[in-house]
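User: Hey, quick favor. My workstation is busy. Could you predict this chain's structure for me?
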Amino acid sequence: MTGSSDGVVAALEAGLPPGAVVTDPDVVERYRHDRALTIRPGRPLAVVRATCTADVQVTLGAASRFGVPVVTRGAGTGLSGGSAAIDGCITLSTERMRSITVDAAAMVATVQPGLLNAEVKAEVARHGLWYPPDPSSFEICSIGGNLATNAGGLCCVKYGVTTDYVLGIEVVLADGRVVRLGGRTVKDVAGYDLKRLFVGSEGTLGVITEATLRLRPRPPALCTVAATFSDVVDSGRAVTRIASAMRPAGLELMDGAAIAAVERVKPIDIGPDVGALLIGQSDAGADEAGLMAEACEEAGAIYVAVTDDPDEGEQLMAARRMAIPCVERLGSVLIEDVGVPIPEIPALISEVGRVAERRSTLIPIIGHAGDGNFHPLVTFDPSDPAATERAGLAFDDVMNVALGLGGTITGEHGVGVLKASHLATQLGEVASELTRTIKHALDPQHILNPGKWV
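Assistant: No problem, here it is.
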């Protein structure tokens, strides 16, 4: 292995620009893990900081030749350990791949993966356009990471997830070959839709080095509905009422524990003894917002307010975006990302509460309620072995609950390391075999992000 290690690093240094290959242990340390801090990452041989597709080609070509694994990393904000290093790998960072070109007439942007989601939004806004996918971490997460996990966000209930905005991609395969998939047209049904195979593949099939993204006109002004409930299950019932009658621009939920965590950091003046806060947004006008408010009242809301003030609406959504960082201040967090069919939302919330009680573990709940994608946040003290064990069991319990309700183990964060052992349960034997077949066809040496979910 030492010979291979020395050989691949020497090949990378010979083929890449000066400074692109980093072996300094202090620098390499910063590239070992993402935000899934409960994952113990390995130690890379080196970090490659690519600036262009050619750099990625050289990296994968050398890795393939020497049989050395490659873990691709964007901004490192992932929550499932998908970019966690493994021992002896090359960590391929796309953070320096930051070009963007906007074609306003065609309503597309061609971007490299290192740009942050917020930077893409800001640039296309200069042209009077909008890029909708908006993960809660949009200010710090990269487009490359969004593509790798098929990220969603707060407005995806109405406007869709990342893959709905990908018209074309450029991908470097495991052996260093480059392929372009899709293009610039809105409709294209020629051949297999291979680009969707790579979007969401978490770096296991290839490295996306460029994407052509579909844009939209700027959205209309928003009306915001805020409703509080004494019982979080009632808020779930409100969600099912709303989702069966309309498609809001956003519909977010926070339970009492999540609200309390945010209140400790940045008070949002939610009254005491509140079991849940539901935040709905409409870009279809006051009438739709009024219907959302009525649905909340019918489901048992104790307080409902409607505003068309954009600052008030943004303050509420900002509080929702802060929920995970605020809960992380309570201890280590295993961040679930389960999804269930809309009618099963009340059952999911009820069952998560039972898991928390049975495992004596705090599990605040937040989520993109409008599309059934919830984040039960399994919180524990890592210095307490018993609490750590209970948290692991609770994490597994919640995933089993979601699957039992006809749901999924991940709606947007990806499988990564945290959920790798549960993927086969969801897919089943035949789909798992198909997955392995595709993986082997595109990466026969299994050097791309090995040990994650295939």
